[in-house]
Write a structure and sequence with these properties.
The protein is an alpha+beta fold and 414 residues long. The chain has four domains: 5-87; 90-184, Beta-Lactamase, CATH 3.30.450.20; 186-264, Orthogonal Bundle (Helix Hairpins); 267-414, Histidine kinase-like ATPase, C-terminal domain (Heat Shock Protein 90, 2-Layer Sandwich), CATH 3.30.565.10. Helix content is 52%, strand content 21%. The protein contains eleven helices and twelve strands. It has helices spanning 5-32, 37-89, 108-114, 118-121, 126-129, 134-140, 186-232, 238-262, 274-284, 306-322, 375-385; strands at 93-98, 103-106, 144-152, 158-169, 175-184, 270-272, 290-294, 302-304, 328-336, 340-347, 389-395, 398-406. A five-stranded antiparallel β-sheet has the order 2-1-5-4-3. Strand 9 and strand 10 form a beta hairpin. The longest helix is centred in the N-terminal third of the chain and has 53 residues, at 37-89.
Length: 414
């Protein structure tokens, strides 16, 4: 419409000019009265033909302008579509907001990281999409470079994100809103923590091996003298000897676990059936008070050490059962893709307080009255030796350990 307005204006003024010219021509012909009729017709025809020719040329120009306009619109659509492809393909989450902090765009990565659907929040206030600390950051109007924070998404899951918050500007450099770009760093942080813990446990393991051997020798001597003592004391005093023997057995079990933890782990890689391993671990620990729900049929085969992984999952299942002294539910499940298998072991016990979650994989750290504090440390060591990872999610009345193992071992871990 805007492109045709100048054309109509030209036609109008040309028509007006033509009418004036025609009126003058007729007036001239009247004044000349004696001019032949044929000359009058020729002069008028020339003016009319000229007018029609000019109108035709103007219409041709109008059609050319329409074609150019259509091409410009098509080009703009192509550019916009291409930009949309780029926005939806980047692995980082991108969310744009207008000046009033209304959500205007959410890309696919942002949907995946935050666990939301774009259609549910576009056109709505930022307060409906974000919680603190991102909500407070947007409200403050601050500009953030590269920063990191813990964030709880709509499903209640805690993640660690790296983000930047910048003004959104148009082609005239005018601020028209805000742009939030963020990345899920949860797995990266978990890997960093696992690597740090592995280094700490490796150093501790070397000391543990020497200490365990030094303790086992005097323990053997004490056990021998206890047996001799049991043959010489009065029957009424045998319960004292039995108590000593029981304590020696407990200490021997601790030393055995200590040696198991300290011993270098060299997995013997073979193709193994995780369904069979986990099923046997759960079956051996079934009690009347704990109901076991196992859904591990069809777990893809992986490459690993069957004996070590059997020990790891047995410790996890035993740990879950002990977390429910008054009974509860033990759930075992899995998810898998072409690269890895993740097995989850869940219980309905007392949960793991957030303040100690970073410590539960350390050796000798335990909250149990009779625990050695080595069970989860051994689990962690075995899983890491298979190039995997183990993580815990917990709240009051529910704890889940997630063991992620690669389906193929490229090289044998040292």
């Amino acid at each position: 419409m805007n492109e045709t307005l100048p054309l109509l204006t030209v036609v109008f003024f040309f028509g007006l000019f033509f009418l004036i010219f025609l009126i003058r021509a007729i007036a001239g012909m009247k004044k000349r009265g004696s001019a032949p009729e044929r000359e009058k017709t020729t002069e008028v025809s020339f003016v009319v033909d000229t007018f029609h020719g000019l109108v035709a040329r103007l219409k041709d120009k109008e059609r050319e302008l329409e074609v150019l306009r259509k091409k410009a619109e098509d080009r703009a659509d192509v550019i916009e579509t291409y930009n949309e492809y780029i926005l939806q393909s980047v692995p980082s989450g991108v969310i744009s907001l207008d000046r009033g902090l209304t959500v205007t765009r959410i890309n696919a990565a942002a949907e995946r990281i935050l666990g939301v659907k774009a259609g549910d929040f576009i056109g709505k206030s930022y307060t409906e999409l974000f919680g603190d600390p991102l909500q407070a950051l947007l409200r403050s109007g601050a500009v953030e470079g590269r920063s990191e924070t813990h964030y709880t998404i709509h499903s209640g899951k805690d993640i660690h994100i790296g983000y930047s918050l910048t003004p959104l500007v148009d082609s005239q450099k005018e601020i028209i809103g805000r742009l939030l770009v963020f990345t899920d760093l949860t797995e990266l942080k978990a890997l960093e923590a696992q690597a740090e813990l592995r280094d700490r446990l490796s150093s501790l393991g070397e000391m543990a091996a020497g200490m365990a051997h030094e303790l086992r020798n005097p323990m053997g001597v004490i056990a021998g003298y206890t047996k001799l003592l049991g043959k010489k004391v009065e029957p009424s005093s045998l319960h004292i000897v039995d108590s000593i023997t029981n304590e020696i057995a407990v200490m021997d079990r601790i030393i055995t676990d200590f040696l198991s933890f300290a011993r270098p782990t060299e997995p013997r890689i073979a193709t193994i059936d995780l369904s069979d391993i986990i099923g046997k671990c759960a079956g051996h620990l079934e009690t009347h008070d704990v109901r076991i729900f196992s859904a591990v049929e069809g777990v893809p085969a992986i490459q690993g050490d069957e004996i070590l992984l059997r020990q790891a999952f047995a410790n996890l299942v035993q740990n879950a059962v002990e977390a429910m002294p008054h009974g509860g539910e033990l759930g075992i499940g899995f998810v898998a893709d072409e690269n890895a298998v993740e097995v989850s072991v869940s219980d309905t016990g007392h949960g793991v307080p957030e303040s100690i979650r970073d410590k539960i994989f350390l050796p000798f750290y335990t909250t149990k009255d009779k625990g050695t504090g080595l069970g989860l440390a051994i689990v962690h060591k075995i899983v890491v030796s298979h190039r995997g990872s183990v993580a815990v999610e917990s709240r009051e009345g529910a704890t889940t350990f997630r063991v992620k193992l690669p389906r193929k071992q490229v090289t044998t871990p040292r």
